[in-house]
Amino acid sequence: MDRRFFEVYNILKDKGLLYKPFVDIRVKEDSMVKLYLDSADYDRIKIFKWRELLNEEKKVVIKAKTEYIDNFPVTLLYCKELVDVSLTEGKTYPQRSKFKIEDYN
C-alpha cells in the first residue's frame, strides 16, 4: 500500500473522523470532495435515496461551512456547520463502480 494512505489514516484518526459518516460530493464535472459529517448532519442527507434521485432526475445540493483536512486521494473536508440540504433538478451520477442498484432501492 501507498505510504500516503497511512498518513491520511493517521490524520483522520487524530481528528476523530475514522468512524464518522461521509459523503462524496461532485464539486465540478471532474472534481470530487469527501465530506465528513456528524451523525445528525448525515441524517439530513441520507434520507435521499440514489434510485429515487436517478428516476426523478433530481440531485441533492449541500451547502456547508467546512474545514480542510487533507488532499489525498481526493480533497477531504469536515463539515463544521451544515447550512442547507436541498433537492433540485439535475442529474445524480454514480462516481465509481462501488454503486450497486440493490444498495440504493
From TrEMBL:
This is Uncharacterized protein. The lineage of its organism: Bacteria, Pseudomonadati, Bacteroidota, Cytophagia, Cytophagales.
